[in-house]
Design brief:
heteropentamer; A mainly alpha; B mainly alpha; C alpha/beta; A: 2 strands; about 75% helix; C: alpha/beta; Rossmann fold; six-stranded mixed beta sheet; four-stranded antiparallel beta sheet; 10 strands; about 35% helix; about 25% strand; globular; binds adenosine-5'-triphosphate; binds magnesium ion
Chain lengths: ~270, ~220, ~220, ~220, ~220
């Protein structure tokens, strides 16, 4: 009994603790590179000679872009797991879908926040209406907020899983639109097109960006792992709870009470 | 197959009959729709020209809000006294049930759209330049909203918090319909030089996906 | 006909049934009793295919209800009278019964005939037929709800406190319905708190307690 | 205590009571029976001051209920158990009963004491107290609803089918409640379809039919 | 008198506790509020400047829609299982009941307004130039909406069609609040050269009348 208590006390294991340490160290390194070691974006205007560019704002690149990419990863994972649930109806898929949706929503929220903060100096506005990528990203965020609200509002775990899966499969249809929007609506967006392929950025910038991908990937994995375990333990706990509850319920039966309740034996 | 359509018709007829009895659409949703138009007028405090420029968007926002009411009602009719359990026990296919409920909502939405069109013509001074585009947009958007709404109504049904949960689930999904239909109306009302028929294509795709997907997914929800 | 082995059912996370073992033969009438909260309603809903068993096996009319598709299949073959009446408030008594007849797949002519018969049997006389349901008294609603079941002529009847809210005449009607159902080859499970009344219907009384069968006076 | 003369009450336009003449003395227990739709529920609601009489006179606890202000005044002195339970789904059993105690104007200390007593009397044991009401079975809800009445200690009890949905133990509790209420000087009107059960409570049975008193076995 | 306030507090505490249990405000109405802002953005398809100009009006339209949800919920809590009958029999004064229910709605509205203010700052690029005016307008308008809404909620309660009836009863009555609060925000957000404080006066009068009138009239409705 005490042993199970110990293992259910924490969502970590030696491996995940190691992962956690690496992730935290990675985050610190990333922040160091992003906010201290890399240069701000300053160029001289070819004719006037004024200083132009994004200055320090460009440092958000190292967070914003990896966050966006891993939002995709999380939501795709959620959709795949949801589909898996609808086919197989096993708890594993459902727990994974819920975990991925929650972590993905946090990431998506951070994309919006970093994007807004970046947009303020660069586009001179927090938010740009009519920018298709921004709007589709926001819709994505809202749909998964709805997903989470639905899951929290449903007590019956089966109904919650089933309904959530349907919502996730609908919501994920927005992903390709977010990704392709800058191409489809070229003239309707301030937002950067996909430029990562044709990188002509200086070495340190490139390195930091790659570091960003690595580190945020670790963050995603770490969060997912823990969120999944929390979900799993909750479920197991509920399972144990059911076993205990069944035992309690059956032990609670009192012959005399039952007879009184059905009007016998008196 | 004929059982399928018979069942769908049965359900749609039942919902429309309840509608006709309680007069909710006529006495309440319709005035609400007009009210929303008037409120926008107040809120924007704008001259006719501005209102006219924004008429397509306001029109479709008003349609969405009214659609929310119609769908809430469509769900609560089944929920109020546990009729949904009866339907689940009736052996009716969930797809037929879906088509039936969605059709009834569709009919109501079309009525509302006609009314709101009259509303923006009178209140905002809009002019219909391409009637065909207006009709096509109205019909396709109504299909899209009715099907998506019925599916999401089933998602939110049985939860104590349905009234508030449904809007936040449904509205983001309907954003493409709002945008597509607004652009199409922009063209049809001569407000902006966009290609309304192209946007109509988007609506058509959405409507088809919503109908097919809804009929399939409804089973997973209603029939547990 | 109906066979449950160690059937567990959850409501949310609460084990409303904690392991029910029960066997009901075709043509039998069984009475279900037990304290409030014993799990009678849950057991009936489980047998109707409205709930999935958490563990154990449930076989009803040859369908193994652990599979979703089987639950779906069994539903059309049973009739369940629940605590709520499942009527549309804005439709009249006749319209409601007619709708439920058609929804069960009866064609138009057959349903007319059966609807008239059912309304008569339940003592819903002409004055009431065209009243919208929201204007009925508690017992009148209950009768309407029963009429909507009777038209279906199901193989398995699951009746949750069918006498509740009915006057003496109504109670006799219910007793007669049950008798007729059995005579027509149906199987009936009746939950009730009114044993004096119900005991005349069948010698077999199953007592639930704490979500399990506590006593079964199998003949 | 309660006196009705040719009292007529409308529900919408339907004359649910068509002229009731009835006199109930303080400390009496009367049983109300009658077919479904006879007007029992309506009569109880009328006496509780929830409906205005259309014609005739209704005097309850000295208040003449034709006046709106008098109807308002009488309400706090009576307790009505209706067909619906009047509970808040998201609050727990204990919270519900506590709320209704405080709403009836009991101060904090007094209410704690009475609430504990009422919950015990209704057999709502500790395991149930912290469950939200939406997780209760039909009979458990009914018991909670009764507990919320008991804390009020009213002068006139109007109970509409108080035994419905309760198990035998619950029914005995209700019988005992009624006995205690009368012993404490209260007056009780009980409507019921279960005459065998209820007849032990009092010799006086009033039968309603068609919205009027059909028979009154006044002692 | 002390019974009066004790009763009002009891009712308000009960409603807020139900709110805290069901998390409807946090999980659903709040996202809905933001959604409404987003939908307007879509529908007007406008640049930041236009949206900023219309921000006050859109803000208050959004508040009204959310208020509708909050009030629906406040009514349906009493209706769901006939609790209102219990309250009528409790001997509690209808005015106390009114104050209690309206206070709970008020608290929720204030939370929503804070959220929506953040929303228009981020999404529409509004800037708060007169914080005091914003706060005063927000509070007075919340009082006005909560009181009027609670009164009209009582009017619509008990009718099967409440969900659809309430909006059309309530929205026209709240038109002055919409206009007054919009003008006050126009000033406070530096959008237009109007005298916001004068409009605040209108709101104050409305709020006082709604509170007093509501407390009085509520008796006539609830207590029949
Ligand atoms: C709230 C505002 C913003 C949102 C919601 C947003 C959203 C996104 C998303 C979803 C992606 C991933 C696109 C993909 O790879 O498919 C992305 C990538 C990117 N964003 Fe943003 N963004 C915002 C603001 C900004 C701003 C202000 C800038 C800089 C001026 C910016 C620069 C970038 C860049 C450079 C990429 C990588 C593009 C690529 O090569 O794929 N974003 N953003
Ligand atoms: N809202 C209403 N509008 C019109 N008529 C109604 C309404 N509610 C009930 N009635 C009618 O009023 C009559 C009396 O109803 P009431 O509920 O008082 O009967 P009851 O004696 O309590 O019956 P039961 O035993 O079925 O509960 C019934 O015939 C019913 O049809
Ligand atoms: N939605 C729910 N969530 C969790 N537990 C529930 C829920 N509904 C009922 N329960 C619990 O399940 C148990 C069984 O309920 P059920 O309704 O089957 O009882 P019952 O035997 O029909 O009782 P009654 O005679 O009172 O109708 C009860 O103890 C109840 O507290
Ligand atoms: Mg039950
Ligand atoms: Mg009655």
């Amino acid at each position: 009994m005490t042993e199970t208590m110990e293992t259910t006390d924490t969502t970590g294991s030696r491996g995940s603790r190691l992962l956690g340490v690496v992730t935290l160290l990675g985050l610190a390194t990333l922040l160091l590179f992003a906010f201290a070691l890399t240069e701000p974006d300053v160029r001289l205007h070819p004719t006037t000679g004024q200083e132009i560019g994004q200055f320090d704002a460009v440092r958000l690149l190292y967070l914003h872009v990896p966050l966006a990419v891993f939002t995709y990863v999380a939501f795709v994972l959620c959709a795949v797991a949801s589909a898996g649930y609808l086919v197989k109806r096993t708890a594993w898929f459902d727990t994974m879908a819920y975990a991925a949706a929650e972590v993905g929503t946090v990431f998506c929220g951070l994309v919006l926040v970093t994007g807004s903060i970046w947009g303020r100096p660069v586009w001179n506005t927090w938010w740009e209406w009519g920018d298709v990528r921004l709007m589709t990203t926001l819709v994505l965020f809202l749909m998964f907020t709805g997903y989470l609200a639905l899951r929290r509002a449903t007590v019956d775990p089966r109904a919650s899983a089933r309904r959530g899966a349907v919502v996730a499969l609908v919501a994920v249809l927005d992903l390709p639109i977010v990704n392709r929007s800058v191409e489809w609506w070229e003239n309707r967006t301030l937002h950067q097109k996909s430029t990562l392929g044709e990188l002509k950025i200086q070495d340190l910038t490139l390195f930091t960006l790659m570091l960003g991908f690595l580190v945020l990937g670790l963050v995603l994995a770490w969060l997912l792992l823990h969120r999944f375990r929390v979900g799993w333990l909750e479920r197991e706990d509920a399972g144990h709870g059911v076993a205990t509850a069944i035992a309690e319920r059956r032990a609670d039966i009192d012959e005399g009470d039952v007879d009184a309740a059905v009007g016998e034996g008196a | 197959m004929s059982r399928f359509f018979a069942d769908a018709r049965l359900v749609a007829a039942k919902d429309l009959r309840i509608e006709a009895r309680s007069r909710v659409l006529l006495n309440q949703v319709a005035p609400f729709a007009l009210l929303v138009l008037v409120l926008f007028g107040f809120a924007l405090d704008a001259d006719q020209r501005t209102l006219r420029a924004f008429a397509p968007g306001l029109f479709w926002v008003a349609v969405l809000f009214c659609a929310l009411l119609a769908i809430q009602r469509s769900v609560s009719v089944e929920q109020a006294d546990g009729a949904l359990t009866g339907l689940r026990l009736s052996g009716m296919s969930p797809a037929a049930l879906f088509v039936g409920k969605a059709s009834a909502v569709f009919v109501q939405l079309v009525v509302l759209e006609v009314l709101l069109t009259a509303g923006i013509i009178v209140l905002y001074g809009s002019e219909v330049e391409q009637p065909l585009l207006v009709v096509a947009t109205g019909l396709l958007a109504a299909v899209a909203v009715a099907c998506t709404g019925t599916l999401y109504g089933a998602l939110a049904s049985g939860l104590g918090v349905r009234e508030t949960l449904l809007p936040i689930l449904l509205l983001p999904v309907l954003a493409p319909v709002l945008i597509g239909a607004t652009r199409a109306f922009d063209d049809a009302l001569g407000n902006a030089a966009v290609d309304g028929w192209a946007w109509l294509g988007l609506l058509a795709v959405f409507a088809v996906v919503a109908t097919a997907g809804g009929a399939l997914a409804h089973g997973a929800l209603v029939d547990e | 006909m109906v066979e449950l082995n160690a059937a567990v059912a959850l409501l949310g996370r609460f084990p409303a049934l904690t392991g029910v073992d029960l066997r009901i033969e075709a043509g039998e009438t069984i009475l279900l009793q037990g304290p409030n909260g014993a799990g009678k309603t849950t057991l009936l809903r489980l047998c109707a295919g409205l709930l999935a068993p958490e563990s154990g096996t449930v076989t009803v009319l040859g369908h193994d209800l652990t599979a979703g598709s089987e639950r779906r299949a069994v539903r059309r073959r049973v009739a369940l009278l629940g605590h709520s009446t499942g009527l549309y408030e804005d439709l009249t008594v006749a319209e409601n019964v007619r709708f439920w007849a058609r929804a069960a797949g009866l064609d138009a002519e057959l349903s007319v005939e059966r609807v008239v018969g059912a309304l008569q049997r339940l003592g819903l006389d002409d004055g009431l037929l065209d009243l919208p349901v929201h204007r009925l008294s508690a017992g009148q609603r209950r009768r309407t709800s029963l009429a909507a079941l009777v038209v279906r002529r199901p193989e398995l009847w699951l009746l949750d406190e069918p006498h509740a809210g009915l006057d003496q005449a109504g109670r006799s009607v219910v007793d007669k319905l049950i008798g007729d159902a059995v005579a027509a080859g149906g199987t009936v499970v009746v939950s009730s708190h009114e044993l004096e009344r119900v005991r005349t219907l069948s010698p077999r009384v199953v007592t639930l307690a704490g979500g399990a069968v506590h006593r079964d006076t199998s003949p």
